[in-house]
Amino acid sequence: MLGVIADIKKDYIKKLLEEGKRLDGRGLDDYRPIEIKKDLYATAEGSALVSLGSTQVAVGVKMILGEPYSDMPNRGVLTTSAELGPLASPTFESGPPRPPAIELARVVDRGIRESGSIDTEKLCIVEGEQVWIVFLDIHVLDYDGNLFDASTLACISALLDAKMPKVEDGKAIYGERSGSLPIVDTPISTTYAKLGSAIAVDPHLEEEQVLDARLTITTTKKGEICAMQKGEGGAFTAEEVLNTIDRGIEKAKELRKLL
Amino acid sequence: MKKDGVKLFVDGKRLDGRELDELRPIKMEVGVLKRADGSAYLEWGENKIIAACYGPREVHPRHMEEADKAIVRVRYNMAPFSVPDRKRPGPDRRSHEISKVTKEALESVVLTHLYPKTVVDVFIEVLQANAGTRCAGITAAALAMADAGIPMRDLISSCAAGKIEGKVAVDMMGAEDNFGDADLPLAISPQKKEVTLLQMDGNFTRKEFEEAFNMAMKGCLDVYEIQKQALLKKYEV
């Protein structure tokens, strides 16, 4: 899904990283410029467009009334999906979601779900019968690396932007709004790429094409860890995992200020 | 899932009588299938899992082959009868993700450059599930690959730790997983102790994470010893 890159370029990127430098001049702990725009698509209950360097991700929140899960009769439901369509990269193809898109959606979903970001009890209309189902749809528009962090930022921004439709006689009235979604935490994900002995935050496309392994850490407002995912074929030492977590917890505090 | 009045400790012990740092009973057997190039059967607590390895063999479809190395493909699958409510057959999103991270965990130790233009196929079938199937699946898959004679730098051993009622514990069983506060599946290459799979969900403070991480790491090393015994047993005379 990533496309190919010459070995000579890989060696160059690795050499740079091990000297603490990067192709685009950033330091190992620097993100690319981040921009968050909200309230863009009026048909959605909430929306956001996040750019992370050249990576762009649009997220829309749609809410429909439906039945709760039987084991959580008084809670609303969250459903997250991601599309890596051919518009975003010459290496993406249309068709049903493949493992990279599924992994992306599930890692973002875990961050939001496990942080308790949405107070889902407030999404219950009639216990056991009717609750709000919140759909988070991640649409990648431009793929230049690090979709995890861009998507988590876009999702939480869209959730913060969302306005709940009014409910009357068990029906949703989409033209009228009844306040914001009950958002109680703002999880932030930080993704690190390991190449050789170097570990750098926010890999761009070329770094993602050559990295040995990646580690995503999602943290809550309180600085606790609510989701993690290691990816790709390489490995981390225990020390690298713990150091990277410390870096991620600190970095997330900075990113949270952008919301 | 939030617990409502479910107790996970009885008289200071876990529901199945274990201590916080105690693994469930694990049994492994290597070479259990005739047609596969390598195979392993594993019982881990109430989990029953069989894994098979085929290859290195020709890649189908062709476009997946790599000119300079072998590829590793993993299919993790749960039998419809492996869980209390019948699971719809075929891969769901969870299975796709587990297959992907399992493949990544395993391929890190395979000497793929020795067999260009081939595939090492690994199939993991969960026959009975009770929490921790991805760790058990990876552990069984590594055995099946070793049994198939796939050249590997190391085995892969896997174990999870988590948090139940605020306490960090290793190898959670079904009820603990459903009502627990956090889950941290880990896989390592045991000789270098490098992490080849790490996922986490729930809630850990930094300190709890380190405690759970160390506990899972120790669990992986215990699993490694059982794996070695299972491999040696096959070649006993």
Notes on the structure:
Chain A has one domain (19-256): 2-Layer Sandwich (Ribosomal Protein S5, domain 2). Chain A has helices at 7-18, 99-114, 147-161, 205-210, 238-256, and strands at 34-38, 46-52, 55-66, 77-83, 124-126, 130-142, 163-168, 171-180, 188-195, 198-201, 213-219, 225-231. The two termini of chain A are 30 Å apart. By secondary structure, chain A is an alpha+beta fold. Chain B has a single domain, classed as Ribosomal Protein S5, domain 2 (2-Layer Sandwich). Helix content of chain B is 27%, strand content 33%. Chain B starts with 8 loop residues before the first strand and ends with a helix. The model of chain B has no long low-confidence stretch (mean pLDDT 93). Classes of the chains: A alpha+beta (259), B alpha+beta (237).
Question: Which secondary structure elements does this structure contain, and how are they paired or packed?
Answer:
The complex is a heterodimer of chains A (259) and B (237).
Chain A: H1 7-18, E1 34-38, E2 46-52, E3 55-66, E4 77-83, H2 99-114, E5 124-126, E6 130-142, H3 147-161, E7 163-168, E8 171-180, E9 188-195, E10 198-201, H4 205-210, E11 213-219, E12 225-231, H5 238-256
Parallel strand pairs in A: 4-6
Antiparallel strand pairs in A: 1-2, 2-3, 3-6, 5-6, 7-8, 9-10, 9-11, 11-12
Chain B: E1 9-10, E2 13-14, E3 26-30, E4 38-44, E5 47-58, E6 71-78, H1 93-107, E7 118-128, H2 133-147, E8 157-164, E9 167-170, H3 174-179, E10 182-189, E11 194-204, H4 206-234
Parallel strand pairs in B: 6-7
Antiparallel strand pairs in B: 1-2, 3-4, 4-5, 5-7, 8-9, 8-10, 10-11
Report a brief summary of the structure.
The complex is a heterodimer of chains A (259) and B (237). Chain A contains 5 helices and 12 strands.
CATH topology of chain B: Ribosomal Protein S5, domain 2
Oligomer: heterodimer
Shape of chain A: elongated
Radius of gyration of chain B: 18 Å
What share of residues of chain B is helical?
A: 25-40%
Strand content of chain B: 25-35%
The CATH superfamily of chain B appears as GHMP Kinase, N-terminal domain
